[in-house]
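Dear U.,

For the methods section draft, I wanted the exact inputs and outputs in one place so we can describe them consistently. I've listed the two proteins in the order they'll appear in the manuscript figures. Please don't edit the token lines directly; just add comments below if something needs changing.

First protein:
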Amino acid sequence: MRILDGGMSNALEDRGHDLSDELWSARLLRDAPGEIAAVHRAYYEAGATFATTASYQASVSGFAKAGVPRDEAERLITSSVTIARQVRDELAVDGRQRFVAASVGPYGAVLADGSEYRGRYGVGKAFLRDFHRPRLELLVAAGPDLLAVETIPDVEEAEVLVELIDEIAFPAWVSYSVAGGRTRAGQPLEEAFAVRSTNVVAVGINCCAPEDVQQAVELAAAVSGKPVVAYPNSGEGWDAGGRRWTGDASDSTSLAPAWAAAGAEYVGGCCRVGPDDIRALARTLG
């Protein structure tokens, strides 16, 4: 069992940072990298085996819109991995094995309008290849243990990413944003989880409601034959128009043993899940 970390953005907000601009947590790669390191450290110390880098919403084009020159944007993207690796290595004195997963969010995340919860961006596969490949190459060159290709709402985008993963020949997990037993773009999960790639080491879901996890884990294990990754949100919902979270949080710690029994070998949290939640999860599954 591998315990993943929780949300980066909520942990940074809890430390007093305003992430309301389009760069979201990626802005702190430039403005406060030490704060990102502090969040990684908090999750590791809470029992997480993996730190997920602050690169989910980081791209050359996104930084360019904020006035960041290309060479600086590329440096910031690679720094997301460097920061996490440095924290991991600092903690290595305790003898525990820890890993760094380089976050690769969907194209919709860069649009900063909630498109990662809808998919179907109105662009073709060639456009998506051109968008994703440069940052995949930057992240891999920085030396993570694997890629966390996450919150993918659309099977077509996942297909592009899996092709690129195979071309680069680097290990990755691929996880979808789902709702009600389908991808956010409306495709059947059986189709989504039919990933045929030796470089994809796990498939699953993230950034979804806890109640959507069990069925998805069972399907992912049956369809893919691979280990399953599962890291849902707190249960709150994202209001893209108001740029805020709504509803009540729920504790999914009690649900996690059933996910593990169904095939989830990588379990953690996503948005609004913090270090205390990961500590409880690690105790439950440890």
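Second protein (the one for the lower panel):
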Amino acid sequence: MAQAGVVLDRDQFNCSICLDVLRDPVTIPCGHSYCSVCIQNYWDQDDYLGAFVCPQCRQNFNPRPLLSRNTMLADVVEKFKKTGLQEAAAPPNQSFAEADDVECDVCTGRKNKAVRSCLVCLASYCDLHLQPHYDSAAFKKHKLVAASKRLQDNICPRHDKLLEVYCRTDRRCICYLCLTDEHKGHDTVLAEEEIQQKQKQLKDMKQSSQLRIQQREKEAQELRQGIFSLIRSARAAAEESDAVFTELIRSIELKRFEVRELIKAQEKTAVGEAEKLLDKIQKEITELKKNEAELDKLSNSDDPVHFLQTCQSLHAPAVLSASPSVTADPNLTFGPVMTAVSDFKGLLQEVCQGGFVSIYERVRDVVIVSPQSPVVQLNTTHSGDSGSAQQMEAQILIPPLGLDQNPVSPLNPFLPPGPAVPTFAFSPFGSKLSTGSRQRHLQRRAHPRRK
């Protein structure tokens, strides 16, 4: 009685993970049952999260629940499989047609989704109603295609026959009756034969396209490698140039310190020698003034005896020592030194200017894509058995990629373009000089420095 009153449904014993009949069923704390392997694999994927969720009710469990076999449910499933009632009670496998699906032309009521269409019957069939086309010999010669809503497009609108011939002259599909009418004498072939030829041409076009894709991918890979290499080299060059210019700055600072100390040392030496000579002269002046005072006193003496005796004891005035030549110019300065420093500054600027031009030219020479790229033309010709040919031509123009075409300063590309661009000439020593600095260089060569 119980068995007769109960209708068993196969879906009631399906695992919601694998969508198949439960195998070794286990029940988790929320009451839902799954295959032992399915729920373990499902929770293994979330093991790193530390939270375990039921696939149906989304209830969280922490820690991971221990799984135990549901003996009663396992026995029910086994009896369900053995009795075979699930197969009898299960409804046929139906797939109802949706809005965009092709409907079965045989189904009544709610129509199933059609899986194939017959070009002979001009109808579409679901799995159930398509079976006679496979089982019955009367349908063996019928041509089945993918389910389509446009079956009438395969019928000749004039003769109501199947379009089985392709007219190469008019480039359209026709029926056999059209061969004796408006397409008489045209270049015609079976549609299947034309399809095979077109498929071959498409295959050749696809292979050619794949070759071009591979070529472009190779070029793109090489370009990426070039960009990466250039960026890495540019960073290394920038760091090395910073080190070089830092060393140059340190060297200039050292020379500046040496010149300052040299000026101070020369000042101390010259002032020391002058002060010694000044002290000596001051002592001689004091001695001469002392002798002059004694002579004045003696000349004013009224005692003749004392005058005569004192005159006999007088000595001739001491001979003054020879004094070195003294430059008596009150405007004596380090002007020549400053001239030499200015000359050094001008020479250094010219050297730096010429050196920067050379550096700038070499920096501009480092490019990945040449300014003028060639025009790539690809021609592919496909020929059929009937002599017809189709040409596929692809002409790819690659615009030149490179530096900006706007005029920039040849001395410094980071400065805005000026109204006049200086020209350059080479000095007799091989250094590159600008037009203005070349004249100053020649003037300095005409007037050698003081030593």
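Candidate sentences for the figure legend, describing the second protein: Residues 1-7, 85-91, 373-451 have pLDDT under 50 and may be disordered. The domain at 2-89 is CATH 3.30.40.10 (Herpes Virus-1).

Thanks,
Y.
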